[in-house]
């Protein structure tokens, strides 16, 4: 077993995330998507456990200044630049800086800093004004009087800095030369190589996690059955983490401030071990097709689509987890509710047995709030049958909900409707969004279900059906997401205006105010990209200022 707990969450996210745009548009940094994504997970770590690479001072400073000005902190950039230049004398400001972390013979992390030196004497002279003159120990080794002592060694045009002499012994001659390639697309890049971490640390971390979960399961006022279910759930979670640890070769996080495209980018790249479950899923993903691609509209305030492959072993885990959770959640519910919930779980598990789970969500505010959600299912008729039973249960309980089954048809789908009456004391914001009642339209087809909420739900659900029919078998994208902040803020203002939302809306730059998630598969892995356009950052800064000045949310 190899150490991968640090990357487990990102591994899971990577398998659930992908592009909103076409592959050729994703990662538009002057490169095609496959090349840019491949470079993001390229192994330039020189065998270290962790490498942190910072772009050159000449590149970093202008980008930091750009962000600072954008969020209203431009006045501080002059002081920052002065301080950096004061202590960077003697360094080559056109080359990157790095930190390499390995494990020593006692399984303790040992970090080595890597500084690009242009004039060692000038650098030490700048340093001596703060910590005193470094002591020359001979053979290019120096001791710097910081705390218990810091050691420095010059090799070629790089100065390596560590906490002990041993940390600087037997360093590769080209150690620093991997940094330019690592950082060429980023301002900051972090690479973790889980397979290089000693087995003893892996066992210690997983045992501590297991102990913590067991303690939580044994604590509180659980009865014997609930405690056993909690222990089984924790054991399953540990097994999933261990599986994730075994399957990850490297994890890369990259941050880039792109002034030309007016956005800040955060990449999460994962490359999996050859022949691992995750690597095989990535390969299958490349040829997978989706049936709910038409749900999302480019003009909407929020659009998101996800596609997840499900293996046979995961289905058993899913079924066990759902059964355990259902038993705990519905322990005190009546038998009718329990049976309905069990049937819903059976439908979900049956759908998962198809080997994939697909969902699409579209939220529009152009003509009032409209939420449309689509999901692929194994058998839409079973969803309809369950809805019929739910309608009967609601009528028996005289709930303030009306559910009408088979109220119409559209393009091969059976249409159903539901209304939920809002209580007389409902918040004014809720009434503005929905009126006196929440209206829901449901469409069940052979292999998919569409649900629309809002005053125009009937038209919205039919439109979703038509759009999906126009894309019956589109290339699967693990996720695509766009959020247009100005649309969201405008809608918030129309419901309940506040000084903060007003300030944010005023600062948001139309056409440059999106939060986006994209991704691209690579050999045995994928890269997930979060992009935040400059207008979003400006709006957030304006909102923080308005809140600090006493404005309400």
Which features does this protein show?
disordered N terminus; 553 residues; 20-stranded antiparallel sheet; alpha+beta; globular; two-stranded antiparallel ribbon
Count of DSSP helices? 17
| CA radius of gyration | 28 Å
Relative strand content: 25-35%
Largest sheet descriptor: 20 strands, antiparallel
Q: Given the helix and strand composition, which structural class is it?
A: alpha+beta
* Rough outline: globular
Task: Give the % helix.
Answer: 40-55%
Q: List the uncertain runs.
A: 1-30
On the 0-100 scale, what is the average pLDDT?
Answer: 83
State the end-to-end CA separation: 48 Å
Number of strand segments: 22
Structural notes for this entry:
Helix content is 40%, strand content 27%. The protein is of the alpha+beta class. The model is unreliable at 1-30 (pLDDT under 50). The protein has helices at 8-15, 33-40, 57-70, 75-87, 120-131, 179-183, 199-218, 224-247, 277-285, 312-329, 335-352, 380-397, 428-434, 457-470, 485-495, 499-507, 534-548, and strands at residues 50-54, 97-103, 109-116, 135-138, 141-144, 150-155, 158-162, 188-192, 248-258, 263-272, 289-290, 302-309, 356-364, 370-376, 401-410, 413-421, 437-444, 448-454, 474-475, 479-484, 514-522, 525-533.
């Amino acid at each position: 077993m190899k150490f991968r707990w640090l990357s487990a969450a990102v591994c899971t996210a990577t398998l659930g995330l992908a592009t909103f745009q076409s592959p050729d548009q994703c990662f538009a940094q002057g490169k095609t998507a496959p090349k840019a994504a491949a470079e993001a997970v390229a192994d330039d770590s020189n065998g270290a456990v962790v490498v942190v690479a910072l772009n050159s001072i000449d590149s970093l400073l202008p980008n930091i200044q750009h962000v600072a000005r954008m969020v209203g902190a431009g006045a501080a950039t002059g002081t920052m630049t002065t301080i950096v230049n004061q202590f960077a004398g003697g360094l080559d400001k056109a080359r990157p800086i790095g930190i390499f972390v390995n494990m020593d013979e006692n399984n303790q992390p040992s970090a080595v800093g890597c500084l690009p030196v242009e004039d060692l004497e000038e650098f030490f002279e700048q340093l001596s004004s703060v910590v005193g003159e470094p002591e020359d120990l001979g053979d290019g080794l120096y001791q710097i009087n910081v705390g218990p002592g810091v050691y420095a060694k010059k090799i070629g045009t790089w100065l390596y800095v560590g906490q002990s002499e041993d940390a600087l012994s037997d360093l590769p001659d080209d150690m620093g030369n991997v940094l330019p390639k690592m950082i060429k697309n980023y301002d900051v890049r972090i690479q973790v190589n889980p397979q290089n971490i000693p087995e003893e640390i892996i066992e210690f971390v997983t045992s501590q996690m297991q102990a913590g979960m067991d303690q939580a399961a044994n604590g509180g006022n659980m009865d014997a059955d609930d405690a056993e279910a909690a222990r089984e759930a924790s054991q399953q979670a540990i097994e999933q983490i261990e599986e994730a640890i075994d399957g990850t070769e490297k994890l890369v996080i990259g941050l880039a401030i792109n002034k030309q495209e007016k956005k800040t980018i955060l990449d999460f790249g994962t490359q999996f071990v050859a022949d691992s479950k995750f690597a095989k899923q990535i390969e299958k993903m490349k040829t997978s097709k989706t049936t709910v691609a038409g749900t999302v509209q480019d003009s909407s305030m929020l659009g998101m689509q996800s596609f997840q492959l499900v293996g046979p072993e995961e289905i058993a885990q899913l079924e066990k987890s759902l059964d355990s959770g259902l038993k705990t959640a519905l322990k005190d519910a009546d038998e009718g509710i329990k049976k309905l919930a069990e049937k819903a779980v059976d439908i979900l598990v049956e759908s998962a047995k198809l080997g994939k789970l697909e969902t699409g969500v579209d939220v529009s505010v152009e003509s009032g709030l409209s939420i449309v959600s689509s999901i692929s299912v194994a058998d839409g008729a079973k969803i309809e049958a369950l809805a019929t039973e739910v309608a009967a249960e609601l009528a028996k309980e005289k709930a303030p909900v009306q559910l009408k089954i088979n109220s119409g048809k559209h393009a091969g789908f059976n249409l159903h409707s539901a209304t939920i009456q809002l209580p007389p004391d409902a918040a004014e914001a809720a009434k503005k969004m929905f009126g006196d009642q929440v209206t829901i339209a449901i469409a069940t087809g052979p292999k998919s279900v569409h649900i629309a909420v809002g005053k125009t739900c009937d038209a919205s659900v039919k439109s979703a059906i038509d759009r999906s029919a126009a894309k019956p078998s589109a290339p699967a994208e693990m996720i695509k997401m766009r959020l247009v902040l100005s649309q969201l803020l405008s809608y918030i203002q129309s419901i309940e205006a506040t000084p903060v939302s007003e300030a944010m809306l005023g600062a948001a730059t139309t056409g440059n105010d999106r939060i986006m998630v994209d991704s691209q598969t690579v050999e045995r892995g994928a890269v997930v990209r979060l992009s935040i356009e400059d207008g979003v950052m400006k709006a957030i800064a304006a909102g923080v200022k308005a809140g600090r000045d006493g404005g309400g949310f």
